[in-house]
Amino acid sequence: MTNNEKYVEAFKQALQLDDSVNIEALNYRDSGWDSVAHMVIMATLEDSFDIMMDTDDVIDFSSFKKGKEILGKYDVEFN
Q1: Partners of 63 in the beta sheet?
Q2: How far apart (Å, rounded) are the C-alpha atoms in residues 57 and 67?
């Protein structure tokens, strides 16, 4: 599984989304992305990529797009 697939899957699982949702356009507070789902996404990403995000990065993680930028700080590359 590629890093992009792992990333998308974390959102799909945490937010219980199907393929009809444009995941790449998601922002915090969209499609059930509340504070509880946010922490599930963060935990899933940390497990999937074997990283531990700083608190500031968890707080700044406000969209699908921003998340990729933040994960880049932890040497997670997306192709």
Answers
A1: 27
A2: 9
Report the run of H or E that residue 4 belongs to, with start and end. Answer: helix 3-15
Q: 20-43 burial, b for 16+ CB within 10 Å, e for fewer?
A: eeebeebebeebebeeebbeebbe
Hey, is 8 helix, strand or coil?
helix
In 3D space, the residue among 19, 61, 24, 16 whose CA is nearest the CA of residue 42 turns out to be 61
Written as tens digits, the pLDDT of the chain (79 aa) is: 999 999 999 999 999 998 899 999 999 999 899 999 999 999 999 999 999 999 999 999 999 999 999 999 999 999 7
